[in-house]
Design goal:
The structure holds two protein chains of two kinds. The longest helix of chain A has 38 residues, at 126-163. Chain A is 78% helix and 0% strand. Chain A is mostly helical. Chain A is globular, with a radius of gyration of 23 Å. In chain B, helix 5 links the parallel strand 6 (148-152) and strand 7. The mean pLDDT of chain B is 94. The chains are: A mainly alpha, B alpha/beta. At the A-B interface, helix 6, helix 7 and helix 11 of A face helix 2 of B.
Chain lengths: 260, 234
């Protein structure tokens, strides 16, 4: 055991050791955990795979729902002119930063036995988590697509009107033309959904084998001291988010080259 | 025939400011009309009112015949192209105009041929040069066989070579019997392409004369000052 650094406070060092539940905690322990995490990933640990699969299922479902609702909403706000529009845009932009725990709390109240949708018995099930994440990312997708549609419409409106494209036809044309910008909006939603912990923790309950997803598992395993599993999940999570962003970047870049 | 076009006491106000003062005029087939005036005089707004992109604050814009909007086209100063091939951009205009799918590609190709862009048919429209994009905008208009073609400073941001190409396409429209209504800052172009000049000064038609007379003997003091270069802006 190495002597503590002279400036290190014994109390804090003690806490770290306790958390790691290892004697002589330090870089060695972290590398140890990393190695074990790598082994878990490479060996395709069933617990880990199950958690990753549920995470993806929940977040992807939420993204599909939020896109179906948020994209038309954003497009409509981007193009239509109505009283209260500017206030709505400010609110929508503000909602992009909704704290996940607050969303979780509200959805919890709605889905709990005494709540308005309590009879459905959805609390602590994956559908409840999908609902919470949909609420969380709907403003993100709506606000970002509102911006993209509004910018595009400013550019296209006169030309499309001159050609005689109106209503649904004009909307279809514009949305298709900016589909890669809209994809970015959708992926921003997916990134947020897969990374949040507060909402799914509250409405899902982090039940082993039922509602345990990557982020809630990381929180739990870390507090339990199972660092390899927590780290392994963390690595997978970061890799997924990284891969999504790389994919979005490449698709957009390729589109830019291809279509100008 | 959708001409003659009649403006009856048409005015346009934006933000409490009169952009176009109440204006009445008639525009006939057969001549090319050039709209001249300083920046901010109201040239673009006047054309947009005629084409129906802007609704007049008061007064009426009256076309003849049925579905007059389908019989006119407009080319803007900066062409707006969709993110698809040059050919597909022309085909899109035909689709909107209700041309059956089977006929679109052939007609679009013919229009590209007219403007000399056949070799660019499959290239993405947005990566064409400024001059090529403007010719593509003309091809898109050509495919629609409009009776009236509005052009809003179509060569304002182009070099002399591209400008010449655009002008030759505009002549082809004229030769095919399309009525040209064009605004420009290029006085040489006005002389080359125009038959009559509508001169706008601060939202009013200050003068309407045949091209030759406008440049040799302008009737209004505003036009005289404009031609002497004393009114670079309104």
């Amino acid at each position: 055991m190495r002597p503590p650094h002279p400036y290190a406070q014994p109390f804090i060092l003690g806490e770290v050791r306790a958390a790691l539940r290892m004697p002589g905690a330090g870089m060695d322990a972290i590398f140890d955990s990393l190695r074990n995490a790598g082994l878990l990933i490479v060996s395709g640990d069933p617990t880990l795979l199950e958690i990753v699969a549920l995470s993806l299922a929940v977040s992807l479902s939420a993204v599909v729902l939020a896109t179906l609702l948020g994209l038309p909403l954003g497009a409509a706000i981007g193009v239509l002119r109505f009283p209260g529009r500017r206030a709505l845009i400010v609110i929508l932009n503000a909602l992009m930063g909704l704290p996940p725990v607050v969303v979780g709390l509200v959805v919890y109240l709605v889905l709990s036995r005494a709540g308005p949708l309590g009879e459905l018995g959805l609390l602590f099930t994956p559908p409840a988590m999908v609902i919470a994440q949909t609420v969380l990312i709907l403003p993100i997708i709506a606000a970002l697509s509102r911006q993209a549609v509004e910018d595009a419409w400013r550019e296209y409106e006169e030309q499309l009107t001159s050609l005689g494209a109106r209503g649904v036809q004009a909307a279809r044309t514009v949305l298709w033309d900016i589909r890669f910008s809209l994809l970015t909006a959708v992926l921003a939603g997916l990134g947020r959904a897969s990374a949040e912990v507060g909402a799914v923790m509250i409405v899902g309950g982090n039940i082993d084998g039922v509602t345990r997803v990557m982020t809630t598992a990381i929180a739990l395993e870390t507090s339990k001291g199972d660092l390899p599993l927590a780290l392994g999940l963390g690595i997978v999570l970061i890799a997924i988010v990284l891969a999504l962003n790389a994919a979005a970047f490449l698709v957009k870049e390729a589109a830019q080259r291809r279509y100008g | 025939m959708i001409l003659p076009l009649r403006l009856e006491e048409v005015s346009f106000t934006a933000g409490g400011r009169a952009i176009i003062a109440p204006t009445s005029l008639e525009i006939h087939a057969g001549t090319s009309t050039i709209i001249l005036g300083a920046n901010g005089a109201g040239k673009s707004v006047l054309m947009r009112l005629m084409h129906g992109l802007l609704a007049p604050s008061a007064g009426r814009v009256v076309w003849q015949g049925r579905e007059p909007h389908r019989r006119q086209a407009m080319v803007f100063q900066r062409p707006v192209m969709l993110r698809r091939s040059a050919l597909a951009n022309v085909a899109y205009a035909l689709e909107v105009a209700g041309v059956p799918r089977a006929e679109r590609e052939g007609q679009a190709m013919a229009a590209l041929k007219e403007v000399g862009l056949v070799s660019c048919a499959d290239r993405p429209a947005r990566i064409l040069s400024g001059g090529e994009q403007q010719r593509l905008a003309l091809a898109r208009a050509w495919a629609l066989h409009p009776e009236v073609l509005f052009l809003d400073e179509p060569t304002a941001s182009l070099d002399p070579g591209a400008t010449r190409e655009i002008e030759s396409v505009i002549r082809a429209f004229d030769a095919a019997g399309t009525k040209i209504i064009m605004s420009t800052h290029n006085l040489g172009q006005a002389r080359r392409l125009g038959d009559e000049v509508l001169f706008i000064h601060q939202g009013r038609i200050a003068e309407r004369s045949p091209v030759e007379r406008f440049f040799s003997k302008p009737a209004s003091p505003e036009a005289e000052a404009f031609l002497k270069g004393e009114l670079p802006w309104a």
